[in-house]
Structure formats: C-alpha cells, structure tokens
Amino acid sequence: MITGKKLSRRTLLRGLGTSVALPFLDAMTPAMASSSVPGKAPVRMGFVYVPNGMDIRHWNLDHEGKLGELSRIMKPLEPFRQDITVLGNLTHNSGRPLLDGAGDHGRCCGSYLTGIQVRKSAVDIRASVSCDQIVANKIGHKTRFPSLELGLEDARQAGDCDSGYSCAYTNNLAWRNETQPLPPVLDPRALFERLFGNGVVLSPEARALQSKYRRSILDFVTEDTRKLQSDLGPTDKRKLEEYLSSIREIERQIEKAEKDNAQIDPGMPKPYGVPADFAEHFKLMSDMLTVALQADLTRVFTFLVTREGTSRSYREIGIADGHHPLTHHRNDPALMEKVTQINTYHVKQFAGWLEKLKSIREGDATLLDNSMIVYGAGLADGNRHNHEDLPTLIAGRGGDNYIKPGRRINYRRETPMCNLFLTMMDRMGAHEEYFGDSTGPAEGLNLS
Q: N or C: which end of the chain has fewer CB atoms below 10 A?
C-alpha cells in the first residue's frame, strides 16, 4: 500500500482485532515527482443541535455584512470570527403546529433535518428522510461509516419522556426513512469501540473484566506504526504522532470517566462510562468525532447536544434549575439570565471544539476549513416557541473556500431553513431539485 512516498488514503494500521485509520498526510497526495501542490482533503458536513431555543436578545446581531462585535451568547466564538457565518431569518415552517403531531419540541427537532412536518398516523409515527442521510446514501460508500450520530442525553434515561412517540422526535435528528430514526450514540466507550474495535457490544460487567487486562488500542498496532513511520517525511511523522496522541488521550479520558462513575450514584439508569460533567462529556465525544473526520471514517454527522425539551440542570455553572422550565420564564429577568448563561455555556463547548478542528492541518487548509458545520436550534425563543428567524450559524468554509465566512447574512423573512440544507447537500455531491419545503438554494454563502 506504500510506494515510495505515495500512501493510499485507505491505509490502516492493523493489529489483533483492531484497525486504526490514518489522518490526511502529505504522502497521500498523488502528485508528480516535480510537483509540490498539496492534495485535497474531503469535505465534511455536520449539524450540532442545541435544545429549547435561545435567549434571542443575546444571540441576534444588530448588523449585516462583515462580522463586527459578536453577541453575548456568541462571544466564546470571537477567536473564530473569520471562520463562521451567522445566518438570519431562516424558518422551519414544519415546526409550527399545523397538524396534530409530536408537540412543539418534538416537531421542531424531528423535522429539523427533514423539513417535513412530523405527524402520527393511526398505526405509527411519520417523519421523512433527513438531509444528512440523503448525503450519506450518495457518498457513504467512500467511508467506513456513511454517517455518525452522536448525543449527550436520552429522555428515557432522564426520566421525563411522556411516550415512545414523543421520545422518537425529541431524541433523534437523523432519519433513514419516515419511520426509522437513527438514534445517537451516547456512551463514549461504545463510540470508541465502534470506531476502532471489532464491533462487539459488551455488557458493563464484561467491560470491567476486559479493562483489567486492557492495553491501549495503539499497543496492538505498534509494528505497523513503526513500519509506516520509517517511510514518512518529518511533517507527516509529526502529524501522525499528534493524531496517535489524540487517540491515547481519548482512551485516558474514557478510563477516567468509567472510574469516576463507579463512585457516583446518579439516581437513574445511565449509559456505562458517560462522564457526569457536561463539558467533559462534550469534549470526549467531540474529540472522537474529530478523529473520525480526520481519518475519513465518515464525512457526515449529527450531534444532538442534549435532547429537545430537556430539563437538564447545569450545576457546574451554578444553575440547579431545569433548562426547559427556565425557558418558560414569562420575562422574569432572573430566569432569563440563567437561560442566557446556559446558551453561552453550550457555545463555549462548541468553540473549544472548533479550536481543535482549526489546529489540524490538511495540506494548505485545516480540518475546519474543509467542513460545513451548522450550529443552531429548532426553536428561536424558548418562551414564545416561535420557529422563524432561528438561531443559526455555519462554521467552516466547505473546502476550497466554498463558503466565505466572517459575515452576517440576513435572508428575506420566512426563508426556509431547507434552502441552506439544499445548498449543503449540493456541495456534498447530493444534487436535488428541492428538499423539504425549500424554495431554492441559499444565496450569498459564496461571494465569488
């Protein structure tokens, strides 16, 4: 698989029951001997969904065009002002109560990536295929995983889900078809074993026994790693070392979370190995997602930060109240302040992840440059439960500077969110004339 300094993009480090994909290396560039032009990394598309809307007063910007001062909630993104595009007046008409359905929280989440009103028939639930899965169906054969679905909370485990019907919508962003959601992976260990293991699902007891004898997954690919390093140049060696160090750090974080959880009684069923701290959980899942994107294990993902309608508290930032009840603040300044703090806390975690993505070089660009990552919510104001002018931004350039970031774009009022998704699908090679309630592509993302 290695010929001189040319390296196949599909090269794997192999070991006993283990395979570790590689990041984008200069040696993978199929260039002529006299050429130094770097190869092109793939474009990635993803969606990071936050629940219960926003305190719009502290999200919206008072200007258009070039990004100036960011709003209070977006302030953690200040170092990435030239990497984000803030979008205004995008609407999800499918979230509105036009038909009897899953309730406002269920509708806005269940229809977020489908653009089709969720509804209940006499026999089952009905949604539609989501835009991420349309792309996965088109290009998924190029990667080990057509798509990845991640999350940080499940309503059934939180104990505040009133029916399997509403749970299906509040817990899922990705839909393979109108009746089959793709549930997000919540447990870091389960995600790690899916990415690097042999796919066997172990019980907590079996995992505990295994951990007594566990070595790093990289210990099993030592010989392949040594052989590969001998054929790489200095830059690629450094990239490989940083990449493998990231995997070792993920292993360390997972083991720490499992040890910490062994000493914590959460008072409710909980996935094995899930960190008790929200920020730690977010970082661990996003670190693994970074590795998956870097190694081209997938190019499509959804990340449900917490389920829609969540009543999760955030004691780590001094907020013991449930998130959902707080959003029904009835304009109480003290409650509204807590909502703003939660919104900002979520953005802070997202900003930390963008820093990681931006630090990873891919030829003459970065992993963030070669991505399109939507961050937003299916509700605008959680108190009003409105679905127009949804809080939305997109991070990254979509490869080859396809998106010109560092701007605020205000669309015409009631512009369908699906216009944005239609444009992103097209960029990923999944060409459709329309999607959901789209009226055409989203204009203005590219100024060329």
A: C
Closest C-alpha among 161, 177, 150 to residue 103: 161
Amino acid at 372: M
**For residue 71, which of 438, 442, 408 has the smallest C-alpha distance?**
408
Looking at residue 251, what is its pLDDT?
A: 81
Q: What's the pLDDT at 258?
A: 66
385 Cβ partners below 8 Å, 6+ apart?
Answer: 53, 104, 379
Residues 6+ apart with CB under 8 A from 216: 248, 251
| Prediction pTM value | 0.83
d(CA 54, CA 48): 14
CA 10, CA 25: separation in Å to the nearest integer? 11
pLDDT in tens, 378-407: 999 988 888 889 999 999 999 999 999 999
Fold category of 46-185+274-448 in CATH: Alkaline Phosphatase, subunit A (3.40.720)
Distance CA 79, CA 149 (A): 27
Q: Answer whether residue 166 shows pLDDT above 70.
A: no
